Amino acid sequence: MKPPRPPASMAASAPDSTAAPAADTGAADAGTLRIVLPDDAATMALGRALAPALGAGDVVLLRGDLGAGKTTLARALLRALCNDAAMEVPSPSYTLVQTYDAPGGDASGGDASGVEVSHFDLWRLDGPDALVELGWDDACEGIVLVEWPERLGALAPPDARGIDLVVRADGGRDAILRGWGAHAHAAARMIDAGGRG
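The structure assignment produced for this chain is given below.
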């Protein structure tokens, strides 16, 4: 097991990103979209906006430094998938995995109906070998959210969707989305329009 996390104040800060548009397709990869998230409300709105895109067999890799907003985003995704805005969503930092049933799917009628959703936090994991004991293979039949996915090693699915969160100098975040297709663009438009409800 890994030692406890250092305080968030020790996390590396991102370079200053000023005057960036809310959505920007990366020149290097047409499948990548950067969305500026000015606050936690926008981060949660992104989670709610992306939830309808998820269904059985989808894996979402959440990357970012300590305090970048991975758990905030995961909580919003989970609440939307389970159609329960008030649902208690504890961080799996010490349990390593939390599972949820999405019996009613998300509020938008996505593909998550009747699917088990597993939220992994692999910070304390020594490596991919321990994932067998945590039920990784069974979890991958449902929807999987993974914080600290670099600990997956070769178990990281090549077709996984990615969200990298980078803290901005102004206190907001950049979310770099990979593998979300049109859903990423729809989420960017919604956040641009101020749809953080």
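Interim note for the steering committee: The chain has four helices and eight strands. Helices lie at 40-50, 70-81, 136-139, 182-192.
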